[in-house]
Structure formats: structure tokens, C-alpha cells
Predict the 3D structure of the following.
Amino acid sequence: MTSKLKWIAWVGFWGTLCLNLLIPGRTFAQTKQNTCLDCHSALDGNLQVTADKWATDIHMVKGFVCVDCHGGDPTQMDDKVAMNRAKGFIGAPKGLAIVQMCGKCHSDAAFMKKYSPAERVDQVSEYFTSVHGKRLKDGDINVATCVSCHGVHEIRLVSDPRARVYPLNVADTCGMCHSNPQVMAPYHIKTKQKEDYLKSVHYEALVKKGDLSAPTCNKCHGNHGATPPGIGSVANVCGQCHAVFADLFDKSPHKAAFAKMDLPSCVHCHGNHEIKKPTDDLLGVADGALCVQCHVAGDAGFQQAASMRKGIDQLKSALANSEALITQAEQKGMEVSQPTYDLIEGRQDLTKARTQVHSFNAANVEGDVKEGLKITVRTEEKGRQALSEYQFRRKGLAISLIIILAVIVTLYFKIKDIEHRQKEE
Ligand code: HEC
Ligand code: HEC
Ligand code: HEC
Ligand code: HEC
Ligand code: HEC
Ligand code: HEC
Ligand code: HEC
Ligand code: HEC
Ligand code: HEC
């Protein structure tokens, strides 16, 4: 042991002891002696584990110390004795040994129950079903292990917004490797997942709208396993959240047709990472519509695609028409709360029609369009009524003004006339 190290350990040991004796209410027995931290907090580079960093770790919070993971003797100032392999010191684990280290506690249901009754203990078993776990077993150490995603010596509760696995931080955590061309080069897979995801409607909902139910990488790919529990394939994950769309698709003629072509369902039309907010232009038979990728003039799908789009456009323009009338009437101070309320329902029918596109049956879209049009007939009528009533009132007002004016003028001349006569008399 070098003299510098001896000195560090000596100061650390006696310093801690003195602090414990000096601070009132704290006794030596209450704080476990931890020469590992005393010495390592003063080391440099990778070997440094500061007390500040360690204080953020959930394991420190739960009362664990270095030796609970690394083994060794935390009462010894001499590094050779403290880090003695004969005393169970295992050093810094690599690859598979990391998973085994974490699994020692996290796969032990009885042990974990003592700390948190609801804590899952399937992380390790799930991990080995993932591409990461399978490759690690085959000796590939470039893949993610427990510490790649959770960090080390500053592991936080997953609910802590500063945790690397907190929803808002996940894309960066996965991106460390998946956006790094050097790490991914040997595997010949894309490195654009994060870049694409950052442009998606999901990222926008999650980050800009703060909607934590919107997915980031792990919601689709699973935390530890290859897919989230209960999902056979990542391509089917959309239905977990968009259940209505998935049900419609499953009952649609596309279900069997896509399976036959070996195509994924939602992902084929919407993509996986760069999912954009869909527009009506995706529907129909014009250039840019998805339907004409496969359907050609004359086939049943082509005809129905055109008619779905026609219905949706019709309802959309009827709604816009009513909206314009009602806004105009409202600006003129007319009472339009009922038609305004009805329009909300009309817009819901438009949303329903767009959802029904996924039944790939024009009659279903037509149904919602008809319901919506019934409402717009009413709202348009109410809007027109309100505007003509306004015109009527304006005319009425003008006429009454003219009458009042006429009366005033008549009175004026009448008075003048009376005055004139009085003077003459
Ligand atoms: C007096 C200082 C000192 C003490 C006490 C000490 N260490 Fe170390 N530790 C070192 C130094 C120096 C190294 C790097 C050289 C080496 O590996 O021996 C090191 C290396 C390590 C490594 C990396 C080993 C590897 O495999 O790469 C780990 C892990 C470690 N220490 C943990 C501990 C733990 C746990 C304790 C307490 C039981 C402890 N240390 C106590 C000084 C110390
Ligand atoms: C929850 C388990 C756990 C605890 C507790 C823990 N470590 Fe570690 N430590 C690890 C793992 C896992 C690694 C390997 C990290 C890696 O490969 O990136 C590691 C690596 C290290 C290394 C080697 C760093 C390097 O890059 O060579 C040192 C030194 C170390 N730990 C010291 C400590 C000290 C000191 C403490 C207590 C303050 C401590 N550890 C507490 C799990 C733990
Ligand atoms: C590819 C990244 C990744 C790897 C590898 C990984 N985790 Fe996780 N872990 C996560 C994510 C993401 C969560 C969930 C965060 C959430 O619930 O929002 C999580 C959650 C957890 C939890 C909280 C309880 C739970 O299961 O939800 C524990 C404990 C945990 N991981 C331990 C481990 C252990 C042990 C390993 C190694 C076998 C490991 N993790 C490997 C990403 C990872
Ligand atoms: C000595 C036992 C032990 C070891 C070894 C251990 N842990 Fe833990 N870990 C715990 C306990 C106990 C908790 C607290 C559980 C709780 O209260 O939610 C915990 C909590 C966690 C949490 C937060 C879980 C949550 O619900 O938010 C994560 C993440 C985690 N550990 C990851 C790891 C990783 C990664 C390793 C390996 C480097 C590891 N643990 C090694 C015992 C251990
Ligand atoms: C430490 C680097 C690292 C981190 C962090 C990491 N991965 Fe990986 N991942 C890899 C490597 C390397 C592969 C192996 C590539 C292969 O076999 O195609 C891989 C494979 C995958 C695969 C399978 C790709 C395929 O071949 O089909 C998926 C999916 C995946 N990772 C998702 C994630 C997600 C999600 C996260 C974050 C929660 C994550 N990874 C974090 C390194 C990492
Ligand atoms: C909305 C769900 C969803 C989200 C969010 C998501 N993915 Fe994917 N990902 C998929 C689907 C679906 C596939 C295609 C799987 C297939 O074809 O089997 C895929 C494929 C992959 C692959 C395999 C290689 C490739 O590009 O085809 C990797 C690696 C991957 N995703 C990583 C990520 C990372 C990293 C993130 C976060 C930045 C992420 N994914 C976010 C659904 C998602
Ligand atoms: C974890 C739940 C979850 C998963 C999994 C998921 N989504 Fe989403 N999705 C959401 C949320 C939340 C929104 C935002 C809703 C909003 O703001 O209107 C959203 C929005 C969308 C939108 C835009 C809707 C609109 O009206 O603007 C589309 C399209 C979409 N998702 C398609 C998919 C596809 C395709 C998949 C599978 C690859 C998928 N989603 C997986 C939760 C999820
Ligand atoms: C054959 C192509 C196709 C498939 C397959 C498909 N969609 Fe769509 N999806 C569309 C089109 C086209 C629109 C736009 C409809 C419109 O706005 O008129 C759309 C719109 C959406 C919307 C937004 C609805 C709104 O209110 O604006 C969501 C969410 C959505 N799809 C989810 C899914 C999910 C989940 C799946 C899988 C179960 C799926 N889609 C499968 C073509 C498809
Ligand atoms: C990937 C190719 C593909 C895309 C894209 C696609 N379809 Fe289809 N569609 C098929 C196949 C294959 C069938 C079943 C064979 C058939 O009956 O023509 C089918 C059947 C249909 C049917 C049932 C026709 C019948 O026989 O009653 C309708 C309706 C339909 N598609 C509408 C659409 C609409 C609307 C879109 C655009 C949003 C669309 N399709 C996009 C391939 C596709």
C-alpha cells in the first residue's frame, strides 16, 4: 500500500470516528463503518465514488453499503485487507457477472418482499428473453446490462424524474448505444430510432404535453424482456393503448390480407418510430393516399377508399360551414349556446368516422358521417335563424328609430305651431 493511500484511509477512518463522536445524538454504532467509501471518495477517475454521488443511490437510502454488492471488509483501512478476495471481495463485475450481482437480491422474492411487498422479481429472467440478454449469454459485452440503463452508484427509484429510466430520459438512455454508429456497426441495424422518435406524435404528447401515458422506447420494447408482458410481437404493441383501432382492424378484411402478405398491421401504414399525426390525405385514391399503394381502379378496396374519403370530406365541410355561421352570429351577440354544443357532437362523429376507417368497410364510415350530417343540418339551420333574427332585429330597430324620429319631428313642429299661435293671439 502506498503511503498516500494509507494516509487517505487513516484520515477517513479517524475523521468519520471523530465526526460520529462529536455530532450530538449520533453514536458510532448507528453509522456502519465504511472504509471503502472513505478511501474511494478520495480516489480519481473511474475509481472515485464520492459520498455525494453515493447518497443519491436507492441502495444507500435502503441502508446497503459497498460490500453488499462487492464483498470485502469495510472495517479495514488497509486496501489489501479490505479488498481481499479471500474475504469475498469480487471486484468490479463485468458482463454476465453484473446481471448475477443484481439478481442476487432482485431475483430473491423473499428478500425483496422485506423492502417492498409489490416489487417485481422478474427482471433477470425477463432480461434473458431480450436480444440484449441472449447476446450477453453468447459473450457479447456491447449490449445493455442492468447498469447501462440504471447507472451505477447513483441508481434511483424508477419513479424519480432524475432516474435514467424515467419516461422523459429513456430515449437518451437507449440512444447512448442505439444512436451511436460505432457501437451498432457490427450489427448492421439502423441508428435512427431516437432521431425518428423525437419527431413523432408520441414524443410530442410525452414531452410537450406532459402525457406520461404516451410511449417511449421501453413502453413498446419492454423494460427488460423482448416485448412488454402479454405482447407476442413488438409490431402488435399499438393495440395495448389504441384498443379500439386494433379491434376494428382485427375484424376487418385487412387482418387476413395483411397476414397473408406477412405485413405488420398498424406499423405498415403509420410507421414505428416516426409516427406522425394522420391527415385525411392518407385516405382515398389521390396521390399520397396509403390505399393506392395496393388498390387499383376498379377493385372493391379502391371504390370504398374513395367513398370513405368523400364522406369524411363532406362532413368536414358541413361542419366548417356551420362553424362559420355560428361564429358570425355569436360575434353579433346572438344566443347560440345550443348549436355550439351540438357542433361538439358533430365533431365527435367526424372523429368516429376517422376511427371507423380501420374497419375498412365504407358502410361503417358512412354511418358516422350520416349521424354527423344530421347534426350539421340542425346547426346550419340554427345558425341561419340566428343571423336572420339579427337582421330582423336590426330592421326593426331602424324602423322604430324612424318612427321615433318622425314623432319627435312632428312634436317639434306641433310645439312650434302652438308657440306661433300663442304669439299671434
Ligand atoms: C485505502 C484505500 C482503499 C480502500 C479502503 C478500498 N479500496 Fe477499493 N480500490 C483502491 C484502489 C487504489 C483500487 C485500484 C487498484 C486495485 O484494483 O487494487 C481499488 C479498486 C477497487 C475496485 C475495482 C476493482 C476491479 O476489479 O477493477 C472495486 C470494485 C473496489 N476497489 C471496491 C472496494 C470496496 C468494496 C472496498 C471496501 C471493502 C474497498 N474498495 C476498499 C483503494 C481502496
Ligand atoms: C448495487 C450494487 C453496487 C453497490 C452497492 C456498489 N457498487 Fe461499485 N460497482 C457495481 C457494479 C455493477 C460495478 C461495475 C460497473 C460497470 O461495469 O460499469 C461497480 C464498479 C465499481 C468500481 C470500479 C469502477 C471502474 O470503472 O473500474 C469501484 C471502484 C466501485 N464500484 C466502488 C464502489 C464503492 C466504493 C461502493 C460503495 C460506496 C460501491 N462500489 C457500491 C455495483 C455496486
Ligand atoms: C435496456 C434497459 C434496461 C436494462 C438492461 C435493465 N433495465 Fe431495469 N428497468 C428499465 C426500465 C425502462 C424500467 C422501468 C421504468 C418504469 O417503470 O417506468 C426498469 C425497471 C426496473 C426495476 C423496477 C421494478 C420493475 O421491474 O419495474 C428494477 C428493480 C430493475 N429495473 C432492475 C434491473 C435489473 C436487476 C436489471 C438487470 C437484469 C435491469 N433492470 C436491466 C430498463 C432496463
Ligand atoms: C443487496 C441487495 C441488492 C443488490 C445486490 C442490488 N439491489 Fe437494487 N435494490 C435492492 C433493494 C432492497 C431495493 C429497494 C426496493 C424498493 O424499496 O423499492 C433496490 C432498488 C433498486 C432499484 C429501484 C427500484 C424501484 O422500484 O424503483 C433499481 C432500479 C435497482 N435496485 C437496480 C439494481 C441494479 C441495477 C443492481 C445491480 C447493479 C442492484 N439493484 C443490486 C436490493 C439490491
Ligand atoms: C450499452 C448499449 C445499449 C443500450 C444502453 C441499449 N441497447 Fe439495445 N442493443 C444494444 C446492442 C449492442 C444490441 C444488439 C444488436 C443486434 O443484435 O441487432 C441491442 C439490441 C436491441 C434490440 C434488438 C434489435 C434487433 O436486432 O432487432 C432492441 C429492440 C433494443 N436493443 C432496444 C433497446 C432499448 C429500448 C433500449 C433502452 C431501454 C436499449 N436497447 C438500450 C446495445 C444497447
Ligand atoms: C410506438 C412504439 C415504439 C417506440 C416508442 C419505439 N419503438 Fe423501436 N420499434 C418498434 C417497432 C414496431 C419496431 C419493428 C419491430 C419489428 O419489425 O419486429 C421497432 C424496431 C426497433 C429496433 C430494431 C431495428 C430497427 O430500427 O428496426 C430498435 C433497435 C429499436 N426499435 C429501438 C428503439 C429505441 C431506441 C426507441 C426509443 C428512442 C424506440 N425503439 C422506440 C416500436 C417502437
Ligand atoms: C403506451 C401507449 C401507446 C402505445 C404502445 C402506442 N401509442 Fe400511439 N398514442 C398514445 C398516446 C397517449 C397518444 C397521444 C394521444 C393524443 O395526444 O391525442 C398517441 C397518439 C398516436 C397517434 C396520433 C393520434 C392523433 O389523433 O393525433 C397515432 C397515429 C398513433 N398514436 C399510432 C400508434 C401506433 C401505430 C403505435 C404502435 C406502433 C402506437 N401508437 C403505440 C399511446 C400509445
Ligand atoms: C391500411 C392503412 C392503415 C392501417 C393498417 C392502420 N391505419 Fe390508422 N389510419 C389510417 C388512415 C388513412 C388514417 C387517417 C384517417 C383520416 O384522417 O381520414 C388513420 C388514422 C389513425 C389514427 C388517428 C385517428 C384520428 O382521429 O385522427 C390513429 C390513432 C390510428 N390511425 C391508429 C392506428 C392503429 C392503432 C392501427 C393498428 C391497429 C392502425 N391505425 C392501422 C390508415 C391505417
Ligand atoms: C399493403 C396493401 C394494402 C393497403 C396499403 C391497403 N389495402 Fe385494402 N386491401 C388489401 C388487400 C390485399 C385486400 C384483400 C383483397 C381484396 O379484397 O382486394 C384489401 C381489402 C380492402 C377492403 C375490402 C374490399 C372488399 O372486398 O370488400 C377495403 C374496403 C379496403 N381494403 C380499403 C382500404 C383502404 C381504405 C386503404 C387505405 C387507407 C387500404 N385498403 C389500404 C391491401 C391493402
